[in-house]
Specification:
The complex is a heterodimer of chains A (about 200) and B (about 260). Chain A has about 200 residues and is an all-alpha fold. Chain A has nine helices and one strand. The N and C termini of chain A lie far apart (about 60 Å). Chain B is mainly alpha-helical and about 260 residues long. Chain B contains eleven helices and one strand. In chain B, α7 packs antiparallel against α8, α8 (about 185-195) runs antiparallel to α9 (about 205-210) and α8 packs parallel to α10 (about 220-230). The chains are: A mainly alpha (about 200), B mainly alpha (about 260). Chains A and B meet through α2, α3, α4, β1 and α6 of A and α1, β1 and α2 of B. β1 of chain A pairs antiparallel with β1 (about 20) of chain B, so a sheet runs across the interface.
Chain lengths: ~200, ~260
């Protein structure tokens, strides 16, 4: 049975106007709008939380926190950016914070345990190759990792990435080139290491 | 297989990964419960990421600024010509005209601002929160830092050239735009310095500054300037200058 909640404010009225929530324009009521945002972007946030370093144990918590922040702070959303770039920025910060601060993460996990979260949104069509790529991504620096994720995996344009990062599009292009080179190098190195082990 | 092809395959494999069906329902159920019980979200910013700039810790920026403004050796670097001419270039002029972060409202301040502390967050959003003023970012964005540094540097240059009115105008602008900025202490120090350069000098602010910021690198210059202008031989923060006694002579000594 759905739990009802009250956010009867103008902030929620704006949700219906967001470009990324087109399907939900006709929906009324806070819960429906929140659900529309959640449904439309859940997979996006979940995928990118994992790519940014979430492990399966806490990816759900990170996603949950991202949407908690997003629904509560919709007033700060500037409609000139897309919902996805906005959500990505929140995801990046939440994941970064949870990764950095182990103590805080444990506290959050405890809070979530108290909330009895039984879901584990495990992956469909997960392959070793995908897992391997995420490991490689973690060997890049943050700036390179983010441009690669957004460009190669999410298909963002340079200008969308520029908007997400708050840098000029030219910077995005040069970072992307550097990131591709670096990833290829990391892959080569990793392959060489494994070759050595096999001998 | 070459690495380019291999990477393409890896990307393809990762693109195909999605959460299992049913995860959305369970996830949203959990979110609904959290929203219903007014769980406070994490205090994170939601604006552009600014990777590579905002990662510089504030204390490092502050330390750098302190050294740059306070060190007399940096004087040549801070001349108007070196920093920004008085007919400022468009970039600087644009930065100067930017609205102060503290004055931006929640409506327009999504970018680059930290959320307020979670404890202070109202549990339900109200229409009034649209116009509420949000606190300035805890980590100053690079643009603010540059604009602050430029203003303070210009003020210092004007002060060095004894153009007090212009220096004070710059400092006033800084105070208006960045009341709690990284260079707030330097601003106070330079204001105190400008007071000492007035005719007749006014050392009240300098004394206050010395008491509040006994370790400021500006203090030495402040003391020198204010003393030269007749502020007396006593050090501003009440401590003894070199060769000066700290304590009053005893009754026996007076005799």
């Amino acid at each position: 049975m759905p739990v009802d909640f009250e956010i009867s404010t103008n902030e929620w009225a704006r949700l219906g106007e967001l470009p990324g929530v087109g399907a939900a324009v006709r929906l009324t009521g806070a819960r429906d709008r929140a659900e529309a945002l959640y449904r439309e972007h859940f997979a996006f946030v979940w995928r990118n939380a994992r790519r940014l370093g979430c492990t399966d144990e806490w990816v759900d918590d990170a996603v949950h926190e991202v949407f908690l922040v997003a629904t509560r702070r919709i007033a700060e959303f500037e409609a000139r950016s897309s919902v996805r770039t906005w959500l990505f920025a929140i995801t990046f910060r939440i994941v970064g914070r949870m990764r950095r601060d182990r103590g805080r993460r444990l506290a959050q996990v405890q809070r979530y345990v108290a909330e009895r979260p039984e879901l584990v949104a495990d992956a469909e069509r997960e392959t070793e190759a995908a897992q391997y790529l995420r490991q490689l991504l973690l060997k890049l620096n943050e700036a390179q990792r983010v441009v690669l994720i957004l460009a190669e995996l999410e298909g963002f344009t340079s200008s969308e990435i520029a908007e997400t990062l708050g840098v000029p599009a030219g910077t995005v292009d040069s970072r992307l080139r550097a990131a591709r080179l670096q990833l290829a190098r990391v892959l080569e190195r990793d392959r060489a290491k494994h070759e050595r082990w096999r001998r | 297989m070459n690495s380019e092809q291999e990477l393409r395959d890896l990307f393809r494999a990762e693109r195909a990964v999605n959460p299992r069906s049913g995860a959305v329902e369970r996830g949203f159920q959990r979110l609904s419960e959290a929203l219903a019980t007014n769980v406070t979200p994490a205090a994170v910013a939601s604006g552009p990421l600014k990777l590579g700039v905002s990662a510089i810790p504030k204390w490092l920026l502050g330390g750098f600024a302190l050294g740059l403004v306070g060190a007399s050796a940096a004087g040549p670097l801070l001349t108007p010509a070196a920093v920004a001419p008085s007919n400022a270039p468009p970039a600087l002029a644009a930065a100067s005209n930017a609205r102060p972060p503290a004055a931006r409202t929640a409506e327009s301040a999504g970018a680059g601002l930290e959320a307020e502390p979670s404890g202070a967050r109202p549990t339900g959003l109200s229409a009034a929160s649209h116009t509420r003023t949000v606190p300035a970012a805890s980590s100053a964005p690079a643009a603010s830092f540059d604009a602050e540094l430029a203003l303070i540097s210009l003020a210092k240059s004007e002060l060095d050239a004894r153009r007090l009115d212009r220096a004070r105008a710059r400092l006033g602008e800084h105070a208006e735009r960045f009341p709690q900025g990284i260079f707030a202490v330097e601003r106070e120090g330079l204001l105190a310095l400008s007071d000492c350069l007035l005719v007749p000098p006014n050392v009240a602010r300098a004394k206050r500054f010395a008491l509040q910021h006994p370790n400021s690198p500006l203090l030495e210059r402040l003391e020198r300037t204010c003393e030269l202008q007749g502020a007396g031989t006593k050090r501003l923060n009440g401590s003894a200058a070199r060769g000066e006694r700290m304590i009053e002579p005893s009754a026996g000594e007076r005799r």
